[in-house]
Amino acid sequence: MREELIAKFYEFVEADGTVRLRLIQCYAHGIGKRVVAVLLGFPLVGIMYLLKPVLTIRIGVLFYKRVGHLCANTEFWLKKQTLSDTRKREFNIFLSGTPLANRQILNMIKRRIFVLESDFLVWLVEGLKKILPAAHWMWIDLTNSGSNEWDIWNNVKPQLSFTAEEHSRGQEVLKSIGIQGKFYVCFYARDKKYLQTQLNNILNDWSYHDYRDSDINSFVQAFNLFATNGLKAVRMGCYVEESIKTDNPNIIDYATKFRTDFADAYVMAHCKFFIGDTAGTFMLGALFNVPYAMVNYVPIGGCARSERDIFVPKRYWHKSKKRFLTLREIIEIGGDRWMRSEYFERAGILLIDNTVEEILEVIKELNARIDGTWVPHEGDEALQQRFREIFPPNHYMTGFRSRVGAEFLRRHKYLLD
Hints:
7-stranded parallel sheet; 43% helix; Rossmann fold
């Protein structure tokens, strides 16, 4: 708390006049929100207390602004609910503001749980949560996306589904973008455009996410080299910085020409596999057990969820040591959990993206594994096991089910030293 207050103080001191005014306005707004929460929210809480002996009412706020969290956090909660004893005297209410992430996904969630869509109610409850502790019995905790709950993600079936009408509409969408049947894959590379467009204001500097970005052209080049046998590649995305540059008729720039909220969900849910980076877009497929190839993964202390998935990380180049760090070294300095660009900069670490060749190798491996034609090399399993054993027993990655790209590990064995 002390460090947070100091950081806010320096943020105010170093800001220009416009930003300072905005900070003051936000502070006053926050106080006003708490006052309104007390005046309107506390009577509501009182009613809930009176009803508790008969009916426990709990409230949760969906992550409606970011597609990855809207999908992952809600899906994980639903999966866990299927494994828990149903409480007959409990009624769960979920709130959502205007769904910036994806209207179709929110509609599908509404078919599974009770959701009230109201920006005002979200505003009111967020103010109330600042007064009542987060662990209070009335709040539903949706902060856990279960990214390291391997059993739940692998053993519990998908909780969302399309209606017959949506399937019919989805098939028309596929035809309209030049796809017949399931002979296509999806890909996406994260850039700054979504956050800058959807969630930006004078106080939001999203540059701390820059370390996660990838070059979309490296994916395009990889698919240009991939012997697809008619397999089409669909570039996904909501807001993207640039259109892709290719004359390959089997590569479709869906993001700049065709996208809708409904199509985002349907196209991703029915592709053969998806390849991308850390952007939450991958969850649109993961919701429906679509295999995922995760490249340029960073921080290195995380991976895809399913046992069918493959991942390869960015590599950590240490500027002063003039060499790449091993996985053990990355863990020792905490770099396996850094989630801000400045942490890498302060440590003198340059993150190196996967090459076109490495991305192509991952595409080939996942495609072959799905087709049942993958032929492993002698020693591949030993390398996989060595990678897994480097993580300490209580680590976030312990027991992960997915695989590191085979060729990547063969080429970069130094990671395992």
